[in-house]
Design a protein that fits this description.
Layout (H helix, E strand, L loop, with lengths): L18 H15 L2 E6 L13 H6 L3 H21 L3 E4 L5 E9 L2 E11 L6 H11 L3 H8 L7 H69 L3 H33 L7 E4 H18 L2 E7 L6 E4 L1 H17 L4 E12 L3 E10 L6 H4 L11 H4 L8 H11 L3 E7 L3 E12 L10 E2 L5 E4 L3 H12 L6 E3 L2 H10 L4 E5 L7 H11 L8 E5 L6 H7 L4 E4 L4 H11 L6 E2 L20 H8 L2 H27 L3 H18 L2 H15 L3 H22 L16 H16 L3 H12 L5 H15 L3 H14 L1
Parallel strand pairs: 6-8, 13-14, 13-15, 15-16, 16-17
Antiparallel strand pairs: 1-4, 2-3, 3-4, 5-7, 7-11, 8-9, 9-11, 10-11, 12-18
Helix pairs in contact: 1-6, 4-5, 6-7, 7-12, 8-9, 9-12, 14-15, 19-20, 19-22, 20-21, 21-22, 23-24, 23-26, 25-26
Bound molecules: adenosine-5'-diphosphate.
């Protein structure tokens, strides 16, 4: 229960059934069964006054020793009944028969109902006398009284026991119902208290940014100076983000509360989690001049299997709090491996700050929801006090534990432990295969990405279809039943999620067909969004051959997977080319083969001039959204070929584009372009231009045929058709008067500028 424990752990019988009621029940029983009876609590202490006690027993208890022995018998009997959970009968020290039944509430043994002090035959005179002598009472008197104790037949005893059994069951039932009612009542009271707290917190936390939005919007509307307007819009955006975080937190809390939040396991890199956390808090930390430190000890495996999104969420929460509650110094994240089994490692993540600290007393409270420890000290800090409650819940869902150590004025140290699987232990078997009969569709609005994905798949013997838009993908799925669809997440017009939903909606046969998201962005919540939109899993961009192979092995129908006989040459052992400034090893690993890498590289090289001048033009004409799209593409394509530094520069510029940080763009674009253009000098020598002289001249009719085929392919946005035609045209030489047009046509098709391509085809046809 995330709302803290509102019920006491130890259940007391008398809290749920009154002593009077118990006494009445017990009295009726002893009247009816003509025997003694008593009800005691779990420790054997009497709850009721015993009833129907026979004179013999009273006499025995006159002696202190006798009374002690009776108590001992009672408690042994109770213990036995508790142990087996059913009524038991036994003979007491004085030779009488007793029976006892346990009372149980919610699996807790809370007391006993005992009865008896009866005999089944004539008293054993010898024994009665001996007992009386032992405990110091008159033996003759004892014998006299023993003869007057109730005499039951075996049958009567069984009946009495059955009765007592039923009575205790009824008592247990009654008490349990009452217990449930009170638990519900407590939880309702607790919930209403929480609601009050939440409302108080929320009205502040939501109203502040809301008022901000409205006030700033007013200011913006009345402002003439565009720079000022922009500044207001930025502030509005910030408030909007804050509100979104709040809403997301509340949704998360309601998900964990209702148990609908799942832990999804898959391979991830620790470094990526930390990178994302740091980039999310960097700005705030910088503004407060707080240093952010991360450290992963050497024995932590780089890749693990677990729910990286949830782990990232917990760490982010702790780091955010660290930054929030620290005015000077640093916030550090340390990840260490504290124990290791064959298949798993236990990680300890510690987030330490040099902030205001938390008192001992408050350390108990902060993991409960809506608990902020002191509204005064929190006034400066945003939040409604559910972050740590969610973090605790998430950690516990991953079978881990979370805790805090802190000294007021010195800082706090939050830590949690989780056990993660090692990669390659439980991970699926990785065998080489080809899948020539697989039907795969790759959907992406970026032509280069499509080519790369299709190329990576071709290294697995898969010939993939491609679609350049969501709408086209929906259409193609109507025509062909694919085995797997790889779906770009961010596309204009119809995005990956919408496309997926439409496919599933329109074609029932696609209900079971895996649709795998391709996404460059696995930030908070993205994955949940994808999964809830019906996507089956995701692969990150830039595309990684290993991951694609894994997806195929996992989702393709078994009969379409043909295991390769020969072990594939493992990439790491294969010699690979080195290119100055490029991480070719990683790039080749991503793309699967060196040959294909060179292909992609060539493509990349061919586009440098054009793309660079486009980017420049967008900056000059201040077309920021076009600029951002180009930088996004430059980021992925550069990382894909191993130009990591340029990829990072582009990523920063893309971020600046998204945040309309024009100043940053203007200050940094040229440096990135210099780097981009410098790749030309490095890459060009790798690709010797084929001697045009070796090509055969294409006949006019052949060219005309080719162009009309190309026109059809352009009409249908059939990428493969376009490329085939273009390949054929490029494989030949042409008369001088059309050479330039053909180069332009090639460029237009490369850029997927269909309109221009259609125009050029018409122009060439005119010339012919
Ligand atoms: P929120 O930050 O949204 O208020 P949390 O559940 O994350 O909610 O934290 C609960 C409370 O615990 C915070 O309001 C704050 O008072 C306290 N707290 C959390 N982290 C720290 C920290 N690193 N240093 C000092 N106080 C903290």
């Amino acid at each position: 229960m995330i709302y803290g424990d509102f019920m006491e752990d130890r259940i007391e019988l008398v809290d749920y059934i009154s002593v009077e009621r118990l006494q009445e029940l017990q009295n009726s029983f002893s009247d009816l069964a003509q025997c003694g009876a008593a009800i005691s609590d779990r420790d054997g202490s009497a709850i009721t006054q015993s009833s129907g006690m026979c004179d013999f027993c009273k006499y025995i208890r006159v002696s202190r020793l006798g009374s002690e022995r009776c108590r001992e018998c009672d408690s042994n009997g109770a213990e036995q009944a508790f142990r087996i959970g059913k009524p038991v009968s036994y003979t007491c020290h004085a030779g009488l028969v007793d029976f006892v039944a346990p009372i149980v509430i919610d699996n807790q043994r809370v007391g006993c109902f005992s009865g008896g002090q009866v005999r089944l035959g004539e008293p054993d005179e010898e024994k009665v006398r001996r007992v009386a002598q032992d405990i110091g009472v008159n033996p003759e008197m004892a014998l006299h009284l023993a003869r007057r104790t109730p005499l039951l037949t075996e049958k009567q005893l069984q009946n009495a026991m059955a009765f007592i059994h039923n009575v205790t069951l009824s008592i247990s039932d009654m008490a349990y119902k009452q217990y449930q009612i009170e638990a519900a009542k407590d939880s309702i009271e607790y919930a209403s208290q929480l609601k009050e707290d939440l409302m108080a917190n929320m009205s502040h936390e939501i109203r502040t940014p809301m008022n901000g939005v409205i006030g700033l919007a007013d200011l913006a509307l009345n402002e003439q100076n565009p720079d000022e307007v922009k500044r207001y819009l930025k502030l509005i955006k910030k408030s909007g983000r804050l509100l979104l975080t709040l809403v997301n937190d509340i949704m998360d809390l309601s998900d964990v509360e209702s148990g609908s939040m799942d832990i999804n396991e898959e391979e991830y890199l620790i470094k990526n989690i930390l990178d994302e956390v740091i980039s999310a808090v960097e700005e705030d930390a910088k503004a407060k001049n707080i240093e952010l430190i991360t450290n992963v000890t050497g024995n932590v495996p780089k890749a693990l299997i677990g729910d990286s999104i949830r782990i990232g969420q917990v760490i982010l929460n702790l780091v955010k709090n660290g930054v929030k509650f620290t005015d000077a110094g640093n916030v550090s994240v340390n990840i260490e491996n504290i124990s290791e089994e064959t298949d798993t490692v236990q990680l300890k993540v510690t987030v330490k700050d040099t902030g205001i600290g938390i008192s001992q007393e408050n350390q108990q409270k902060i993991f409960q929801s809506f608990r902020q420890i002191d509204s005064k000290r929190n006034r400066q800090a945003e939040g409604i006090g559910i972050g740590l409650a969610i973090a605790k819940h998430l950690v516990e869902m991953m079978d881990g534990t979370i805790g805090v150590e802190s000294t007021v004025g010195e800082g706090s140290k939050f830590f949690f432990t989780i056990t993660q699987k090692k990669v390659g232990t439980d991970a699926e078997e990785e065998y080489p295969f080809t899948a020539p009969n697989a039907k795969i569709l790759v959907v992406d609005d970026n032509n280069v990405n499509l080519k790369v994905a299709a190329g990576v798949l071709s290294t697995m013997g898969v010939k993939a279809d491609t679609a350049l838009s969501g709408a086209l993908a929906v259409e193609m799925c109507g025509r062909t039943k694919y085995d797997i669809v790889f779906m770009d997440y961010m596309m204009p017009e119809m995005d990956g999620m919408e496309t997926t939903q439409n496919i599933r909606l329109l074609y029932p046969e696609y209900e079971q067909i895996p649709i795998v998201a391709l996404t460059a962005n696995i930030a908070d919540g993205t994955k949940d969004l994808l999964i809830s939109a019906g996507l089956n899993e995701y692969a990150t961009k830039p595309v990684v051959a290993k991951k694609m192979a894994q997806v195929l092995r996992r989702w393709l129908p078994k009969e379409k997977i043909i295991r390769s006989e020969i072990q594939e040459e493992t990439i790491s052992n294969a010699p690979h080319i080195t290119i100055e400034g490029l991480d070719t090893k990683t790039a080749i690993e991503m793309l699967g083969t060196e040959e294909f890498y060179l292909d992609v590289l060539k493509n990349y090289l061919g586009l440098i001039d054009k793309k660079a001048s486009m980017i420049r033009e967008f900056v000059e004409n201040e077309k920021w959204s076009e600029y951002t799209i180009q930088l996004h593409a430059l980021k992925s394509s550069s990382k894909q070929i191993g130009a990591m530094e340029l990829g990072d520069m582009a990523a920063e510029l893309e971020r600046a584009g998204n945040e309309s940080d024009i100043e940053y763009i203007k200050a940094n674009t040229e440096a990135a372009l210099d780097k981009y253009l410098s790749l030309k000098t490095i890459l060009a020598p790798l690709f010797v231009i084929k001697d045009e002289g070796n090509k055969t001249r294409m006949g006019i009719d052949e060219l005309k045929n080719c162009l009309s085929e190309l026109s059809i392919a352009l009409d249908n946005l059939d990428m493969e058709g376009m490329n085939n035609c273009m390949d054929l045209i490029n494989a030949h030489s042409h008369s001088d008067n059309i050479c330039e047009l053909i180069t332009k046509l090639d460029d237009a098709i490369e850029m997927l500028d269909v309109d221009t391509a259609v125009e050029i085809v018409a122009e060439i046809e005119n010339v012919l």
